[in-house]
From TrEMBL:
Signal peptide: none annotated. This is AI-2E family transporter. Keywords: Cell membrane, Membrane, Transmembrane, Transmembrane helix, Transport. Its main location: membrane.
């Protein structure tokens, strides 16, 4: 009988493996269709995700006004008015500077590419004294780096074009934020009611913990990004690096990606500094090192603290996996997704221990 059971288990395992392989083959055949569906789904989800982030930022202010007997709708409208004035002042001062720097950068881009190309050629010339195998491998790496640089610049320009074309889609975001701020508790109650009655209390507690964790992370991360951007801008101004505002804005935006974000943000500044002079390269490198030390030892510990309470190795693995699966969106949202899964796992594991 045991032998028969063993054979049955082996048969079931083989059937299960066959079904899994068949499903993977079908997914592979439908890959292009799934990519198209993901593009459509992401076009719908992106405004919602941005609206949720904005809601996490603004909701504490709305709640503070509500506790002072201000009607919730009026509180939201007041915040919208103040935010519109603030953004108008920022754009009035920062947008022209950013626009001028981008236009100047695009005009001088061929010169930067030529300077880097010349540097690569000089490195190839020096590499000729190396052994044959090492020289061939190094030349392949240099040629690959050159092509990757040009393709990344091309993708960046296309991304800017796509971002401008999506401005109409972004028009819906203020309306989504308004209703999320106004009826947040109603939406939460609707989600809870989707579950059986015996599970609603647990679901409500999980949602509350997720809300608390994500709210702290989003607000803290935005503040850290702002401080990193300001510190980088000041440092680049001190060393007289061209396009300081544009480069510091890029550093601030990429800082949202854990661990690898600072390297991504610093790379364009270092490439541009290399085309200026070796001294400027050292200065820009020093600025980025100082800013990252401030971020790692002052800004993040002071603002973020133990918000996520996630091991660095888990964060790094999650970022690598999400980047492969979903690209830039995966890099940005890897940590929040892992944080949500951790809240759910902790709650389920705690209930299992109590039982």
């Amino acid at each position: 009988m045991r032998l028969l059971d063993h054979k049955d288990r082996a048969l079931y395992t083989a059937v299960f493996v066959l079904i899994v392989l068949t499903c993977l083959e079908l997914i592979g055949q439908l890959r292009e269709f799934l990519y198209d569906m993901w593009d459509i789904l992401w076009a719908i989800l992106l405004p919602l995700v941005i609206s949720i982030i904005a809601t996490y930022v603004l909701r504490p202010i709305v709640d503070a006004l509500v506790t002072r007997k201000v009607p919730r709708t009026l509180a939201i409208l007041v915040i919208y008015a103040l935010l519109a004035i603030f953004l108008f002042v920022i754009f009035l001062n920062a947008l022209p500077l950013l626009s001028l720097q981008i236009q100047s950068f695009l005009r001088q881009l061929p010169g930067y590419v030529a300077a880097i190309d010349g540097l690569i050629d000089r490195m190839s010339f020096v590499a000729r004294v190396l052994p044959e195998g090492v020289r061939v491998a190094l030349e392949k790496a240099l040629n690959s780096a050159e092509s990757d640089l040009l393709s990344s610049l091309s993708r960046t320009l296309v991304g800017v074009k796509d971002m401008v074309s999506g401005a109409i889609q972004a028009f819906i975001i203020p309306f989504l934020v308004f209703y999320l701020l106004k009826d947040y508790s109603l939406f939460t109650a609707l989600v809870v009611r989707l579950f059986p009655k015996r599970s609603r209390a647990a679901v409500a507690e999980i949602l509350m913990r997720i809300d608390l964790s994500l709210g702290r992370y989003v607000r803290g991360q935005l503040l850290v990004m702002s401080l990193v951007g300001v510190a980088t801008f000041i440092g680049l101004l001190i060393v007289r690096m061209p396009y300081a505002f544009m480069l510091s804005l890029l550093v601030a935006l990429t800082n949202i990606i854990p661990y690898i974000g600072p390297f991504i943000g610093a790379a364009p500044a270092l490439f541009m500094a290399l085309s200026v002079s070796h001294g400027m390269l050292l200065k820009v490198l020093l600025v980025n090192l100082v800013v990252q030390q401030l971020e790692g030892n002052l800004f993040s510990p002071w603002i973020m603290g133990k918000t996520m309470n996630l091991h660095p190795l888990l964060i790094l693995l999650a970022v690598m996996f999400a980047g492969e699966v979903a690209g830039i969106a995966g890099l940005i949202f890897a940590v929040p997704v892992v944080a949500v899964l951790k809240v759910i796992f902790d709650h389920v594991y705690h209930d299992a221990e109590e039982k």
